[in-house]
Amino acid sequence: MFDQRSLINGKEDSASNYARGFYQLAPEYQETFENSMRIIAESCDFLDGICFFHSYGGGTGAGVMMGKTLVLWSRSYIG
Question: Which stretches make up the Tubulin/FtsZ GTPase domain (predicted)?
Answer without folding.
Answer: 2-64
